[in-house]
């Protein structure tokens, strides 16, 4: 089992920045990829960014150049630095980790990000 605790969400004006953190605990020795998804009201959950255990990252087109994902394997933590935020970035952000050979996925509880215009 892996437990994920997110932090760093909040209310920010358009153009501002936020940094999300997600700390994993439990059976962390087998963590592979880590990532962030988001879900806006009335919309499906979508991938924001992902990062492999080796540090390779990928991003949704809508956030490329503005968001940066990183991870600290020693702390079992994944981060999402969000710059130049837009109102359309408003959503609940969820972190996830894939664990073990079967890549079982675990989810955080979600953190609200609200960007005002």
Shape: globular
Q: Please give the count of helices.
A: 0
Instruction: Give the fraction of residues assigned to helices.
Output: under 10%
Biggest β-sheet description: 7 strands, mixed
Unreliable segments of 5+ consecutive residues: none
Order of helices and strands: EEEEEEEEEEE
Q: Ends: how far apart?
A: 40 Å
Q: Tally of extended strands? A: 11
Instruction: Tell me the radius of gyration.
Output: 14 Å
Strand content: over 45%
Average residue-wise pLDDT: 95
What class do helices, strands and sheet pairing give? mainly beta
The quaternary structure here is single chain
Give a brief rundown of this model.
The protein is an all-beta fold. It has strands at 2-7, 10-13, 18-26, 31-39, 46-51, 57-59, 67-72, 77-82, 91-99, 104-107, 111-116. It is built from no helices and eleven strands.
List the defining traits of the structure above.
117 residues, mainly beta, four-stranded antiparallel β-sheet, 11 strands, 58% strand
Describe the fold and architecture.
- Helices cover 0% and strands 58% of the residues.
- It has strands at 2-7, 10-13, 18-26, 31-39, 46-51, 57-59, 67-72, 77-82, 91-99, 104-107, 111-116.
- The strands form two sheets. Strands 2, 4, 5, 6, 9, 10 and 11 form a seven-stranded mixed beta sheet that branches. Strands 1-3-8-7 form a four-stranded antiparallel beta sheet, with no helix packed on it.
- It is globular.
- It starts with a strand and ends with a strand.
């Amino acid at each position: 089992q892996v437990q994920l605790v997110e932090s760093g969400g909040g209310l920010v004006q358009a153009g501002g920045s936020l940094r999300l953190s997600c700390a994993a605990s439990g059976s962390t020795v087998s963590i592979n990829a880590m990532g962030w998804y988001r879900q806006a009201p009335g919309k499906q959950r979508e991938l924001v960014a992902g990062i492999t255990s080796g540090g390779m990252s990928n991003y949704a087109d809508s956030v490329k150049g503005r968001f940066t994902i990183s991870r600290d394997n020693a702390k079992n933590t994944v981060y999402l630095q969000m710059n130049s935020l837009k109102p359309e970035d408003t959503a609940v952000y969820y972190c996830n980790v894939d664990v073990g050979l079967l890549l079982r996925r675990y989810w955080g509880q979600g953190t609200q990000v609200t960007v005002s215009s």
